Fold these 2 entries.
Entry 1:
Amino acid sequence: MEAVLEKLREYADKAHGDQRRKYSPERYIVHPVRVMEICRKYTEQLPILAAALLHDVLEDTPVTKAELHQYLLTLMNEGEAKATMQLVVELSDVYTKAAHPRWNRKKRKQKEAERIEKTSADSQTVKYADIIDNCREIAANDPEFARVFLRECQSLLKKIPKGELELYAQAKAVVSEQLQIVCAR
């Protein structure tokens, strides 16, 4: 499994190319790796860990669903590849600014929350890890935006309780803690 995850990490890193994290000079891949490591504390299921590494590939890179699926089939059996693809698709934002330029952020996030609410427990588990990793970084580096982002995360978490319960509790606690910190500034 480790060899597969390393190849997926390399694939995601190459797909993200020169992208950097918004608040640091680090290559983008550090975020998906941290998301995977958070998930790994609660599961060893390859599709979940793979989806954690790949969760932003369809949304933020030129890689297509077909290309990603073909690549997954070179590394895993058909069932694992299908499960991974389903999770990555569920984790990819649909209501983006590019797709809905006339909608404001609030409406896009509301629609996205309604969509994510219907996703699988496994994708919600990965989403918890994504929220945990993102909210700490945003709160530390952009307190003004963090107030908006963290409230969006609080609202979203109320709608997505199907994932891993301990990780869900951790995500809620981290968001609440970071919100208290930024609101006290």
Entry 2:
Amino acid sequence: MIQRRAPDDAELMHPVILFDGFCGLCNWWVDLVLRRDRAGRYRFAPLQSAAGERLLAEMKFPPGFIDSFVLVEGGRAYLRSDGVLRVVKTLGLPYNLLYAGVVLPRRVRDWLYDVVARRRVRWFGRRDACRLPTPEERARFL
């Protein structure tokens, strides 16, 4: 699913990854992208943060939306497998090899995404508080 709106200047410069700040898998994903994105391309915000809620509202998502990873890029929101694949494509080897999954129909990709998403707390745990960026990472979080 892709939703569209007019991007602001900051988003034209940097795609924003919105993630569930309490999810262990989501936080692992953010850590991975921070390590692999040496150019500092991506910015981050928990879905539950003021910045995350503002972006979601601008993109016309319902209040309290935390059902999916969201990549906001170029005025569009890319959800589920679409968002993940757009990010892995930029992370270099071996992660960019996962982009080959784009050949699968979106229905199949999103079904696989949903299988993991439904089990993410059981498999990866849940945090008591949202991830706090280190001083070095702070500039990359909204």
